[in-house]
Amino acid sequence: MSRNILPKGSGQMKNNKMKWLITGGCGFIGRNLVKNLVEEDGHFIRIIDNLSVGTRKDLSGVCDFVETDSSSLDSTAQIKTELIVADILDADLTVKAAEGIDVIIHLAANTGVAPSVENPRLDCENNVYGTLNLLEAARINQTSRFVFASSGAPVGECEPPIHEEIPPHPVSPYGASKLSGEGYCSAYFHTFGIDTVCLRFGNVYGPLSSHKDSVVAKFIKNIMEGKPLEIYGDGTQTRDFIFTDDLIQAIRLSVQTDNIGGEIFQIATSTETTVSELAEKLIETYKKIQKDQNIQIIHSSRRKGDVKRNFSDTSKASRILNWQAEISLADGLRKTIKWFGEFEKD
């Protein structure tokens, strides 16, 4: 069911004060979203996280929270943020956690191409069965909105920019598992009337990414540790790098905008950047802070499952969600480097 003909800004805005269930809320994107929400009064936030990446300490850095379990959940309690340490593969737990919830933001996943190549079965179990569990929780509890974190990986190799109408042909197990999640979201919208929205994130970077192994965070950590920047292949592969503040705004709008059930949106910057260009920009920005820093670049073999070119056409998100990325790569890298420097001092 396509709604691409909707004019820009045509969606009606929902009540901003809602009850949120965020899976993977202790992770990089999850904590940025929680931080954004707790700055407003009135939200109730419930987090499911198995602490495989993020920690209680990480979460405490952005909010005060109460840790509970499935036997004592109460979305009417006078608390703002609640953490459940559990796994999304626990189907009964996800159903219980979604009781009384207005919107589910499903971020928890086995992320990245390389881990999926190394262990395809684990990738499938977490990303397919985990997503199905959350969709079932939404169906059983009649949750009004379900937002699924996807990526450009389902599309696979194509002539960019990537847009929502390109037939998907994933080249990695990660892309296949995310495509399955998109397919289940479509099915639960058409069959059960769950307002599902799939957001295909670009390469997200920014503050709170100390646990990430994606290219921006990895490069910054390597620089700070005096290690060379390792580029897989010749460095001409391209990506679309989006700063976390822009991404969080897209998530908020995907919750607040009506008449977008069953839709997929590319959420990126519509800018193509090679990995070599990224490394050069990062080195240039870092040297403005540490002028005597000697930073080397080395090349190794191209990784299996990586696509050659990847950037997005975000015109649909602009037209329907009234959203577009606003933070340039230069500004985003500067803010991210600054955060890492402050993080290392703590």
SSE map:
Blueprint lengths: L18 E5 L4 H11 L5 E6 L6 H5 L5 E3 L12 E5 L5 H7 L5 E4 L6 H6 L1 H22 L3 E7 L21 H20 L3 E6 L1 E3 L9 H10 L4 E4 L5 E2 L1 E3 H13 L6 E5 L5 E2 H13 L9 E4 L14 H7 L7 H17 L1
What does this protein look like?
By secondary structure, this protein is α/β, with parallel strands linked by helices. The chain has a domain at 19-204 and 242-270 and 307-326: NAD(P)-binding Rossmann-like Domain (Rossmann fold). It contains 11 helices and 14 strands. It has helices at 28-38, 56-60, 91-97, 113-118, 120-141, 173-192, 215-224, 244-256, 275-287, 315-321, 329-345, and strands spanning 19-23, 44-49, 66-68, 81-85, 103-106, 145-151, 196-201, 203-205, 229-232, 238-239, 241-243, 263-267, 273-274, 297-300. It has an 8-stranded parallel sheet, with helices on both faces. Strand 6 (145-151), helix 6 (173-192) and strand 7 form a beta-alpha-beta unit. Helix 5 runs parallel beside helix 6 (173-192) and helix 7 (215-224) packs parallel to helix 9 (275-287). It is globular, with a radius of gyration of 20 Å.
Strand tally, please? 14
Looking at the structure, the CATH topology of the domain at 19-204 and 242-270 and 307-326 is: Rossmann fold
Provide the CATH superfamily of the domain at 19-204 and 242-270 and 307-326.
NAD(P)-binding Rossmann-like Domain
End-to-end span in angstroms?
50 Å
Q: Structural class of the secondary elements?
A: alpha/beta
- Rounded mean pLDDT is 91
* Fraction in helix: 25-40%
Shape: globular
Q: Can you tell me the residue ranges where pLDDT is under 50 for at least 5 consecutive residues?
A: 1-13
Judging by the overall fold, what is the CATH architecture of the domain at 19-204 and 242-270 and 307-326?
A: 3-Layer(aba) Sandwich
- N to C succession of SSEs: EHEHEEHEHHEHEEHEEEHEEHEHH
Specify Rg, calculated over alpha carbons.
20 Å
The CATH class name of the domain at 19-204 and 242-270 and 307-326 reads Alpha Beta
Number of alpha- plus pi-helical segments: 11
Biggest sheet features: 8 strands, parallel
Sheet with most strands: strand arrangement: 3-4-2-1-5-6-7-12
**Beta-strand content bin:** 15-25%
